[in-house]
């Protein structure tokens, strides 16, 4: 399973942008995909969004709102806060993604093997990377602003 940086970017930008901007930005992304624009990795259109991986897309929308809110509360200013926020966002993505994928593969071990286990190592890496990058980026931004 290839690892993409999509969730790191979605969740990191949501924390930096705030709830309203994060939801409107990711919502527009979903609308573009629903209209058939090639913005998703493996397809486009409403049929794709209603397919097995559509729950992960909806989960990213929900997670962007959660992370935007946590960013407004300044959780991204420390490594521990960033880890906790990113973990919450990742759990939201998994919850919606697995719920939808389960309707296709069943709610048993196959679901865990197909929709969770292949992604956990990459997500742990992305959470650690965010914990290193986001607090440092805020410190740099604050320093440059004077």
Brief characterization of the structure:
The protein is mostly helical and 146 residues long. Helix content is 76%, strand content 0%.
Give your account of this protein's structure.
This protein has helices spanning 6-17, 19-34, 46-49, 54-72, 79-105, 109-115, 120-145. The protein contains seven helices and no strands. The protein starts with 5 loop residues before the first helix and ends with a helix. It has 146 residues and is mainly alpha-helical.
Helix/strand layout:
Elements: H1 6-17, H2 19-34, H3 46-49, H4 54-72, H5 79-105, H6 109-115, H7 120-145
What is the number of strand segments? 0
Envelope shape: globular
> What fraction of residues sit in β-strands?
under 5%
Mean pLDDT: 93
Low-confidence stretches: none
SSE series: HHHHHHH
- Into which percent range does the helicity of residues fall? over 70%
Q: Structural class of the helices, strands and pairings?
A: mainly alpha
Largest sheet: none
Distance between the termini: 44 Å
Radius of gyration: 16 Å
Helix count, per DSSP?
7
């Amino acid at each position: 399973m290839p690892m993409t940086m999509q969730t790191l970017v979605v969740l990191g930008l949501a924390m930096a942008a705030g709830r309203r901007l994060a939801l409107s930005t990711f919502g527009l992304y979903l609308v573009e995909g629903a209209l058939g624009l090639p913005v998703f990795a493996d397809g486009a259109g409403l049929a794709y969004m209603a397919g097995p991986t559509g729950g992960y897309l909806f989960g990213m929308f929900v997670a962007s709102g959660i992370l935007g809110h946590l960013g407004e509360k300044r959780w991204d200013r420390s490594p521990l806060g960033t880890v906790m926020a990113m973990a919450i966002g990742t759990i939201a993505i998994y919850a919606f993604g697995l719920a939808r994928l389960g309707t296709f593969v069943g709610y048993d071990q196959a679901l865990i093997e197909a929709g969770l286990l292949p992604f956990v190592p990459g997500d742990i890496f992305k959470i650690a990377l965010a914990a290193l990058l986001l607090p440092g980026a805020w410190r740099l931004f604050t320093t440059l602003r004077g």
